[in-house]
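Marked as duplicate of an earlier ticket. Keeping the data here for the record.
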Amino acid sequence: MNIFIIPSWYPSQDFPHAGIFIKEQALALSEVFQDSNFALSTWGSHEKKLQLWGKDHFKNLLKVLNRTKNTSSTYQLNNNLIEYYSPAFTWSRSILKGNIQNIIAQNEQHFLDFQSKAGMIHLIHAHAAYPAGWVAMDLSKKYKIPYLITEHMGPFPFNDFLTCSGKLSTFLKEPYTHSFCNITVSEHQEMVMNEWKIPRLRTIPNLTNESFFTPSIKRREKESPFKLFTLARLEPEKGIQVLLEAMKGIKEITQFSLTIGGDGSLKESLQLLAEELGVSDKIIWRGTLNREQALYEFQRCDAFVLPSLYENLPLVLLEAIACGKPVISTRCGGPESIINSTNGFLAKAGDASSLQQALAHIIDNIDLYKPDKIREDFYNRYSRQVVCKQIMEIYKEAIAASQP
């Protein structure tokens, strides 16, 4: 089986974590199903040098003049997984649909090269309806092969995908209409997309590399301060300000520390808020973390907390439970699919008092949360073997349905 994968987001030098879950899913598929071939087709969707925005005329001119420095590349990520990159500019969808025809052309070149190497391509898997789903729809019509979409957008839909009358933009509606199926990553996302009348919905969660994210052999020292860890972009929707307010309520009743991984536009204001609340001495600001640094923090913490105001299926929660750590999060969409009585506790989104109670509950009852049970629960739902099998079953269904 030969599968052509098109990510709407993909890691770049500017944004190394953008779409990392798509790359990791492709790597997992190639490792689990070594008798199949996979290709990742990218065009620099998150590279600043390829983004042309209306107000940056001088910068745009420089980017266009330097376009010859943007070279294509091909990497063999695994024996049966190839990564293609051919740069294409991106701009507002209101002008020539955001350069979608050139983006399609670059992906078609990758498609044909992959086909010449691996043989007939059986299926296209797009991640997000636009632009990847739009590209997949075009290639599907031209080459008479099925495609499916995994949608990661959250909250769904983004405002710029709505028309003036509040209806769903054709940029999303068309790809969903013609795909074999549209995959959501959580039950909450499926419910929301169903309300928007998106057809043929199926839910398959994201996965996490259980061979990398593993529990530490070192156990917690009961007399030491309780170690909390959070990893998130420091932006309003992640609710870190609510976490700081919740910390104020527990600082007098228990000894603890909070390590904050991540960076963003709110960093300075959050640091000022921590000082105002009198909790700054409890916090370690780590900034942006790479994979190895994140693993270190997951393994050394006693519990992981994610106070978001909205989430689809947050990978950081999966990474935490893969490491056998209890998690505290909010009822904001995806976390409800992940958290249960075995692995953690849910609070009300945006409510510092509710989050304070959740933190106190985990701290006071930490011995009830067994690392081996948390890890087992993770493995049964979100490991590579489990999720990849679900994806492959849909691939087979789509290919069988396309046969005459």
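See parent ticket for discussion. The chain has a mean pLDDT of 92.
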